[in-house]
Every structure is written in structure tokens, then in C-alpha cells.
């Protein structure tokens, strides 16, 4: 696991520094990116940035589970989840 983390504020500052753009502009672009990703996932549209990442909505079937306290069987309804896959360039950066 990574020992360090980079939060959104630090990410915006770093991107602004490297690109020469203002932090407000970079923050606006990141907010727009996240809004587009959320809207696309909600509408079952896969978003792919070749070599970097892919984000898509996945379906989860209904299933039977167990209540951990009582051991009783419960029915878990079908639902949706989000899958984020790393692309080749991102995977190569992790080596």
C-alpha cells in the first residue's frame, strides 16, 4: 500500500503548478470531469481514457446472504456498482 496520499487540494495545486493554470481553473476542470464520470456511470456509459483508465457501471445479481449476528438468511436485492480499471500506462507507472 502507498505510504503517502494526495488529496484533491494537493492534486489541484500540483496540476496547476505543472500546467501553468490557476488552481481555480484546474479545480473547475476536475469538478467537471467528476460530474461527467458520475453522469456517464448513471446512464450506463463506459468512459475510457486509453492507456490510463476506464470507468463503467456493473450489475450485481440478487443473491442470498446471511445476517452475521443471527446467521439468518436474507435476500440481497440486485444492484449496481462502479468498476475502475487501470490502463497500461498507469500499470507501467506502478512498477
UniProtKB/TrEMBL annotation:
Keywords, comma-separated and alphabetical: DNA condensation, DNA-binding
What's a single GO CC term here?
A: cytosol
Gene3D superfamilies for the chain:
IHF-like DNA-binding proteins (4.10.520.10)
Q: Record's CDD domains?
A: SPO1_TF1_like
The Gene Ontology biological process terms listed for this entry are: chromosome condensation
Listed InterPro entries: Hist_DNA-bd, IHF-like_DNA-bd_dom_sf
Query: Sorted alphabetically, which Pfam families does this protein's record hold?
Result: Bac_DNA_binding
Family classification: Belongs to the bacterial histone-like protein family.
Q: What is this protein called?
A: Integration host factor
Amino acid at each position: 500500500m502507498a505510504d503517502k496520499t494526495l488529496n484533491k487540494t494537493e492534486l489541484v495545486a500540483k496540476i496547476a503548478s505543472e500546467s501553468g493554470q490557476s488552481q481555480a481553473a484546474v479545480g473547475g476542470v476536475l469538478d467537471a470531469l467528476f460530474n461527467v464520470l458520475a453522469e456517464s456511470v448513471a446512464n450506463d456509459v463506459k468512459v475510457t481514457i486509453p492507456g490510463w483508465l476506464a470507468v463503467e457501471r456493473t450489475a450485481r445479481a440478487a443473491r442470498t446472504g446471511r445476517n452475521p449476528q443471527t446467521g439468518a438468511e436474507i435476500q440481497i436485492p440486485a444492484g449496481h456498482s462502479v468498476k475502475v480499471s487501470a490502463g497500461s500506462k498507469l500499470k507501467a507507472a506502478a512498477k
